[in-house]
Design brief:
The chain is built from three helices and no strands. It has helices at about 10-20, 30-40, 45-55.
Length: about 70
C-alpha cells in the first residue's frame, strides 16, 4: 500500500502556523494580511479560509489603540 504525503490542506495549515509564529509583529495581522502574504508566496488561500483557520486555533489580531488627548488647554 502506498502512502501519499500530507494533504494540501495539512500543508497549508502548517504554512499558516509558521507564518503566524515567525513573521507577525505584535500579533497585529488579521485574516486579510495573512491571506495576502500567503498569496505572495504563491499559495492559494482566501481571506475567509484564513479567518476560519484563525477562529479554529483561537488566534485574534490585536488592534492598535487610537491616540486620545486627555489634557485640556485653555
Amino acid at each position: 500500500m502506498y502512502t501519499s504525503g500530507p494533504s494540501k490542506r495539512a500543508t497549508e495549515h502548517s504554512l499558516f502556523k509558521d507564518l503566524k509564529k515567525n513573521n507577525l509583529s505584535k500579533q497585529r495581522y488579521g485574516s486579510t494580511r495573512i491571506a495576502e502574504q500567503l498569496k505572495r508566496k504563491e499559495h492559494s488561500i482566501s481571506r475567509c479560509r484564513a479567518a476560519k483557520i484563525m477562529k479554529v486555533n483561537h488566534w485574534l489580531s490585536k488592534h492598535k489603540k487610537k491616540f486620545k488627548a486627555t489634557t485640556e488647554f485653555n
